[in-house]
Write a structure and sequence with these properties.
mainly alpha, 3 domains, globular, single chain, 0% strand
């Protein structure tokens, strides 16, 4: 039985004997927290509930540790965001309605600066790559790529209308263009493994492909559907032979170190020439009143590629 009027000794010695063994290893600050928790028992006849006191202290310590970890995690996340490349953190944080307009302006300005930096970098890279065209080998490769692709695109565009003027329907024209794709794929599958053969000349393959493309366009002037179909088949074979080794020919004549610049300059030349060549072919079509004059220009483009391949050895000798 508890004696009435008994007072609890709140002294540190008394508390140290009542604190559990796991809590005695804590520093003075922890004991002070426990002392504060039990001082209100002085003058009463009740013993402090040490289990409840320990639970409250554990809860407080857990909350403090969690808050500290969350603070450290937030600071660490913000440091990672600020140090990440390409991520712009505005100085003004849009946490209040009155700051929304300012933060939007800062975000738009940052986006505009980023886009401008990208455009400037692209312009500088393009200018640097275009200097490769000073080499005669690179110039020949760029012109061959330009003439070949212009011939292909304009032939595919003009062929259905030219067949329509001969009395064939658009369905027959579409069927003939589909037939052209079969030999194109077959030629690529046959020639690609031959690139590793030492006796195989990829320049000769591209040269022959350009010649076949030009001859197929001339064969297209026939009126018989059989000859027209053969023209599409021959054009598909020539197209496959001319374009299969575009990458390998660039590496062979320019080297791997100049491949990116040469290929980029050749692609830029081909892209810039599309509007002009298409406009010239359309103008010839309007003047002649038919599509045969335009097809002559398409055939001439293929033969120009063939001629440029003949001058490639001279270009190699000139650069050396």
């Amino acid at each position: 039985m508890k004696k009435p009027g008994r007072k609890t000794d709140p002294s540190p010695e008394r508390l140290s004997t009542l604190i559990p063994q796991s809590e005695r290893s804590k520093g003075p600050q922890e004991h002070f927290k426990l002392s504060d928790a039990v001082l209100h028992f002085e003058g009463t006849n009740e013993e402090p509930d040490w289990a409840a006191v320990g639970h409250q202290t554990k809860v407080k310590r857990t909350r403090c540790g969690t808050s500290q970890r969350m603070s450290d995690f937030s600071q660490h996340s913000m440091n990672r965001i600020e140090s990440s490349p390409g991520i712009i953190v505005p100085d003004t944080v849009c946490t209040h309605p009155e700051n929304k307009e300012d933060s939007t302006g800062i975000g738009c300005l940052a986006v505009m600066k980023t886009l401008w930096a990208i455009l400037v970098r692209v312009a500088r890279t393009t200018k640097s790559d275009a200097r490769i065209l000073r080499s005669r080998r690179a110039l020949v490769l760029a012109l061959v790529n330009t003439f070949t692709k212009n011939s292909m695109l304009n032939f595919v565009m003009l062929a259905p209308f030219a067949m329509n003027t001969k009395g064939y329907t658009l369905e027959v024209s579409a069927w003939c263009i589909s037939v052209m794709g079969i030999p194109n794929l077959t030629t690529r599958l046959i020639l690609s493994p031959l690139a590793d053969w030492k006796r195989f000349d990829i320049r000769l393959s591209s040269l022959s492909g350009s010649a076949v493309m030009g001859s197929a366009v001339l064969l297209f002037f026939a009126t018989n559907i059989v000859w027209i179909t053969m023209a599409f088949v021959a054009y598909g074979c020539g197209l496959g032979a001319a374009l299969t080794f575009v990458t390998l020919t660039t590496i062979k004549y320019m080297g791997m170190e100049n491949f990116a610049a040469t290929y980029g300059a050749a692609s830029l030349a081909a892209g810039c020439s599309f509007p002009f060549v298409g406009a010239i072919i359309g103008f010839i079509c309007d003047i002649s009143g038919g599509y045969m004059g335009s097809l002559w220009v398409v055939a001439a483009l293929s033969y120009m590629s063939f001629t440029l391949w003949l001058f490639m050895p001279a270009a190699v000798a000139y650069d050396k």
